[in-house]
């Protein structure tokens, strides 16, 4: 019991020197106080390893210095991302859903009549204007517009798409990779 009391007294007596040493190492008072607190906690947990009568100040300074080095090594492996920009850039929708959606789309596209498939590919996938698609297909402008419209409706029917919210990521993964979630 007396040894624990002596340890505590000596520990408390070294606090001002320990704090001054911590401030000299890190330069900021709040970080120095955190470092001293961590040092005291470690020293208290390992007090049975300290031999009374030896230099406690040197022992505490060694613990503090090692604690600082550990924190600096850890900080070197961590990335500061308080605004979430890095996290957002790393988040992405699962690729397998996109691949499965593309397979479903290709199957649905294959079910369209040839004229509708050609019209939707020319206008939708190739990015041609209705006029250009009509010229390539050799039909009237109104005919190509009609074919594209019927193709879109048939694709929606085959794929069971009711509204535009069903395009892109599913309801589970969308919030995880959106800016609104990260902010």
From TrEMBL:
Record-annotated RNA polymerase sigma factor 70 region 4 type domain positions: 103-155
Segments forming domain RNA polymerase sigma-70 region: 13-77
Alphabetized UniProt keyword annotations: DNA-binding, Sigma factor, Transcription, Transcription regulation
Family annotation (InterPro entries): RNA_pol_sigma-70-like, RNA_pol_sigma-70_dom, RNA_pol_sigma70_ECF_CS, RNA_pol_sigma70_r2, RNA_pol_sigma70_r4_t2, RNA_pol_sigma_r2, RNA_pol_sigma_r3/r4-like, WH-like_DNA-bd_sf
PROSITE patterns to which the protein is assigned, alphabetical: SIGMA70_ECF (PS01063)
Record has NAD as a keyword: no
Stretch forming the signal peptide: none
Keyword Transcription in record: yes
Pfam families reported for this sequence: Sigma70_r2 (PF04542), Sigma70_r4_2 (PF08281)
Domain of life according to the entry: Bacteria
Annotated transmembrane regions: none
CDD domains, per database record: Sigma70_r4
Family, as annotated: Belongs to the sigma-70 factor family. ECF subfamily.
Name listed for the protein in its UniProt record: RNA polymerase sigma factor
Species of provenance: Mycoplana ramosa
């Amino acid at each position: 019991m007396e040894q624990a009391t002596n340890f505590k007294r000596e520990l408390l007596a070294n606090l001002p020197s320990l704090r001054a040493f911590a401030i000299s190492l890190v330069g900021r008072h709040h970080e120095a106080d955190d470092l001293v607190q961590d040092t005291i906690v470690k020293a208290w947990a390992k007090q049975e390893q300290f031999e009374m009568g030896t230099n406690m100040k040197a022992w505490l300074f060694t613990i503090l210095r090692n604690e600082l080095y550990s924190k600096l090594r850890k900080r070197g492996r961590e990335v500061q991302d308080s605004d979430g920009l890095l996290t957002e850039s790393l988040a992405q929708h699962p690729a397998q859903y996109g691949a499965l959606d593309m397979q479903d789309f290709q199957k649905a596209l294959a079910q369209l009549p040839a004229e509708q498939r050609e019209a939707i590919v020319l206008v939708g996938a190739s990015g041609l204007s209705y006029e250009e698609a009509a010229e390539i297909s050799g039909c009237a402008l109104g005919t190509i517009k009609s074919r594209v419209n019927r193709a879109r409706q048939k694709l929606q029917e085959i794929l069971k798409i009711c509204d535009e919210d069903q395009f892109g990521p599913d309801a589970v993964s969308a919030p995880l990779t959106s800016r609104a979630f990260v902010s």
